[in-house]
Amino acid sequence: MSNFQDREKAFESKYAHDEATRFKVESRRNKLLGLWLAEQLGKTGDDAEAYAKEVVISDLKEAGDEDIIGKVMEDISAANLDITRAQIEEYLIKYKVEAAEQLGLTDD
To answer: Taking the C-alpha atoms of 52, 19, 87 and 60 in order, what is their torsion angle to the nearest 10 degrees?
Structure first.
């Protein structure tokens, strides 16, 4: 019975670690997206950092990426920028890879 409990604890521990890692990568990804979009919006310095933080926080509302995409698409529309949802989705993929690299989570 102890062996089963040890395995169960190991799986729970791995799950918790994987979830924490996923959260770190997604938060970093969102910050990178926010910094990129801040530049597109003409924000610099502290304003760009504050905007990136808003983007990160916007992704905490619900599971998935719809909340962050909705937030940035509203900002893009308000600024009359020519950036599509598809482009934002591509940047989310790009920045997820970059975030994982920055956190040392790739095999390269």
So the answer is: -50
| CA distance linking residue 40 with residue 33, whole number of Å | 11
Residue with tokens 């916007």: 58
Q: What is the pLDDT of residue 5?
A: 79
CB 81 within 8 A of CB 41: yes
3-state secondary structure of 104: coil
Q: Which helix (H) or strand (E) holds 31?
A: helix 2-40
Q: What CATH homologous superfamily does 2-102 map to? A: Domain of unknown function DUF1476 (1.10.790.20)
What's the predicted TM-score (pTM) here? 0.83
The pair of structure tokens assigned to 18 is 């994987």
Amino acid (one-letter) located at 66? E
